[in-house]
């Protein structure tokens, strides 16, 4: 069975800049997974610091309004890995999931860490590169012109253990109701 992970699609991130295209792809994938009877699991990053926009009681930590209606299963985490000290692995095993699709935010942190952690736990992992987004850019890392999604996708692809696709490739390969 397949599962779609929607990582950190929270107000504080999604409202940071224009992620309209990424949210649209994620929503289409959610619909496809649900129609196929596959699992959709949202991951919500939380922080104990009351000043943080990720504090559990802050509006910014909530799942973004555009996707909230789909968030029937939500796993809370406190680190970049959606597996570390969470119930995610337990839930996936309970549902009989063996193939995980990665979408969400921030590409180079939570999405990448979760993809690697999933592989380490024996899951087949498909990383949908352009259905991830990040608030960061090349200046964040003092690497002008860096395309973070492309860089992370290339590194994961070169690993030869994590499948990296763009959304259109996902549609061709996996989408149940192809457009």
From TrEMBL:
Q: Which Gene3D superfamilies match?
A: Isochorismatase-like (3.40.50.850)
Q: Name one Pfam family in it.
A: Isochorismatase
Domain Isochorismatase-like intervals: 3-153
Keyword terms, alphabetized: Hydrolase
Q: Which SUPFAM superfamilies match?
A: Isochorismatase-like hydrolases (SSF52499)
Superkingdom, according to UniProt?
Bacteria
Q: Which InterPro entries match?
A: Isochorismatase-like_dom (IPR000868), Isochorismatase-like_hydrls (IPR050272), Isochorismatase-like_sf (IPR036380)
The secretion signal range is none
Which protein family is named in the record? Belongs to the isochorismatase family.
The protein's matches in PANTHER family, at most eight in alphabetical order, are given as: ISOCHORISMATASE-LIKE DOMAIN-CONTAINING PROTEIN, PEROXYUREIDOACRYLATE/UREIDOACRYLATE AMIDOHYDROLASE-RELATED
Q: What is this protein called?
A: Isochorismatase family protein
Record the organism: Oceanobacillus luteolus
